């Protein structure tokens, strides 16, 4: 969606005081078109405009003077990155960040739509905020992010949470100044949710969390339409940033002293497929970025179907390209993968793993797995178990299937009993724990390079950091090494982390 389309009626203001209005659908239709597989697959040829000229208009200067903002983030790294952008916009408007809701003048809940429990947490938080709103009538409360793109969520907020002041989606974060001003001026619920993906907007301000690791968004959206996933509806079609913009951003981060960059995308290795004026993919981008003097570069999240040979070849050059790849498989059964619309078979996935391991023998592979998918039999679950063993994954995020409204899977017969789902998850997790522990055993007595994130969450006297292969290491050391790469000797391995002794700081290492 561009500005012209927005002005044609995509913005709506809903007055809270209209208590006699029971049919909220009339407001809703003017704001948002419900998620639909049929409609969403019509990606079409609508022009996605590229803007390099974002700036804060003079009419919004000083909007936040003397005010504080608080953002609570749910979900993935993409949501965290969106929060960094919104924090940057708030700061440019004169707001100051606070880490307590009670001190805030504006509270935003940046939401996730992937799992039902995340949605429940948001509505629970909205219930708590109702009391705070009564104490502070001038407080602005907003809901943004992926949940805001769902019809049922917006309808529920309109009907049951009228203390919310603003709702906006994932495609119009750059319009936060306008939305805030409308909320202040109208004293009404401002709803601005675009059902079509927005333009690509560069030069957005960011307030990054810390100065050690940085996320860099390289593309938006997903075109895969896995039957369980709401992301294609909440994030729109695939749109890539220009490579020169990404390279410039990473160079700037390197100059600022950042030690690690993670490239983000809902389907990050589909990067570049929509760039019509050039043939340029993630492999080409990584080949450019490995020449930049920054110690570590990662990317997430991959779809196996788009993991091509050129990317594998580039990753095998290593340097600052780490030896850890997160490769979600979701199921080890070809039949279940077909129901999921993953667009690859068990055999194709195993062949991809074979290629990766041949090129990068010391690679650490992790994955995502869903158990109890509609119609998944015991035998099909056992295929997942056997694939996990065959690949030798070193870790996994595991989930019990739960339907998301608006997805094709939500209409399927969810015929695996919950008790059976829990048994399968327990069995899978026991295997994941075993393989994680075995993977860490190989490091006993070794000296590892660790990028120190900071103090351990459980003990301020212990420092914590990660290896190139994304293994958590805890050790005692001087606080001044936080943010640096150090050598740590392994003294003990656990299921999910390593304990060690500080050896020395790593000398500056040039990259290839």
TrEMBL record:
This is tRNA-2-methylthio-N(6)-dimethylallyladenosine synthase. It is found in: Cytoplasm. HAMAP family: tRNA_metthiotr_MiaB (MF_01864). Residues 67-185 form the MTTase N-terminal domain. The lineage of its organism: Bacteria, Bacillati, Bacillota, Bacilli, Bacillales. Pfam families: Radical_SAM, TRAM, UPF0004. Residues 441-504 form the TRAM domain. It comes from Bacillus coahuilensis p1.1.43. [4Fe-4S] cluster 2 binds at residues 222, 226, 229. InterPro entries: Elp3/MiaA/NifB-like_rSAM (IPR006638), Methylthiotransferase (IPR005839), Methylthiotransferase_CS (IPR020612), Methylthiotransferase_N (IPR013848), Methylthiotransferase_N_sf (IPR038135), MiaB_methiolase (IPR006463), rSAM (IPR007197), rSAM_horseshoe (IPR023404). Catalyzes the methylthiolation of N6-(dimethylallyl)adenosine (i(6)A), leading to the formation of 2-methylthio-N6-(dimethylallyl)adenosine (ms(2)i(6)A) at position 37 in tRNAs that read codons beginning with uridine. Its EC number is 2.8.4.3. One of its GO terms (molecular function) is tRNA-2-methylthio-N(6)-dimethylallyladenosine(37) synthase activity. Keywords: 4Fe-4S, Cytoplasm, Iron, Iron-sulfur, Metal-binding, S-adenosyl-L-methionine, Transferase, tRNA processing. It comes from the Bacteria.
């Amino acid at each position: 969606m561009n500005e012209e389309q927005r002005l044609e009626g995509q913005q709506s203001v809903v007055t809270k005081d209209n208590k006699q209005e029971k049919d909220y659908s009339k407001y809703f239709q003017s704001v948002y078109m419900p998620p639909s597989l049929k409609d969403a697959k019509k990606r079409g040829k609508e022009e996605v405009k590229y803007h390099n000229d974002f700036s804060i208009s003079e009419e919004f200067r000083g909007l936040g003077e003397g005010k504080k903002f608080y953002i609570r983030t749910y979900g993935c790294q993409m949501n965290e990155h969106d929060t960094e952008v919104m924090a940057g916009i708030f700061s440019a408007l004169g707001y100051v960040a606070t880490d307590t809701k009670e001190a805030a003048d504006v509270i935003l809940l940046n939401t996730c739509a992937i799992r039902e429990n995340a949605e429940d947490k948001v509505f629970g938080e909205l219930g708590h905020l109702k009391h705070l709103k009564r104490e502070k009538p001038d407080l602005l409360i907003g809901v943004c992010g992926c949940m805001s793109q769902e019809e049922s969520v917006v309808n529920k907020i309109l009907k049951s949470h009228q203390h919310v002041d603003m709702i906006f989606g994932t495609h119009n974060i750059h319009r936060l100044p306008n939305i805030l001003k409308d909320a202040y001026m109208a004293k009404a619920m401002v709803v601005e949710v675009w059902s079509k993906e927005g333009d690509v907007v560069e030069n957005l301000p960011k307030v990054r969390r810390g100065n050690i690791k940085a996320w860099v968004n390289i593309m938006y959206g997903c075109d895969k339409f896995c039957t369980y996933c709401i992301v294609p509806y909440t994030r729109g079609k695939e749109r890539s940033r220009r490579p020169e913009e990404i390279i410039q951003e990473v160079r700037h981060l390197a100059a600022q002293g950042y030690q690690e960059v993670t490239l983000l995308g809902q389907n990050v290795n589909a990067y570049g497929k929509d760039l019509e004026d050039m043939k340029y993919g993630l492999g080409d981008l990584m080949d450019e970025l490995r020449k930049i003097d920054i110690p570590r570069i990662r990317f997430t999240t991959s779809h196996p179907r788009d993991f091509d040979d050129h990317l594998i070849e580039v990753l095998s050059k290593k340097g600052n390209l780490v030896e850890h790849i997160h490769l979600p498989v979701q199921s080890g059964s070809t039949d279940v993968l077909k129901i999921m619309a993953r667009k690859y078979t068990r055999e194709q996935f195993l062949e991809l793993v074979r290629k990766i391991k041949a090129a990068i023998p010391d690679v650490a592979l992790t994955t995502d797995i869903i158990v109890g998918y509609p119609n998944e039999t015991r035998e099909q679950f056992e295929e997942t178990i056997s694939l996990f063993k065959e690949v030798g994954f070193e870790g996994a995020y595991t989930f019990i299937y739960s339907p998301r409204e608006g997805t094709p899977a939500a209409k399927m017969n969810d015929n695996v009993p919950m008790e059976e789902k829990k048994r399968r998850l327990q069995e899978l997790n026991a295997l994941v724990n075993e393989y994680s522990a075995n993977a860490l055993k190989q490091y006993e007595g070794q000296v590892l390079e660790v990028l120190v994130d900071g103090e351990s969450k459980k003990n301020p006297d212990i420092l914590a950091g990660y290896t190139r292969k994304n293994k958590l290491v805890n050790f005692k050391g001087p606080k001044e090494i936080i943010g640096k790469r150090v050598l740590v000797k392994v003294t003990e391995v656990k299921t999910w982390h390593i304990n060690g002794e500080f050896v020395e700081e790593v000398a500056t290492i040039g990259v290839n």
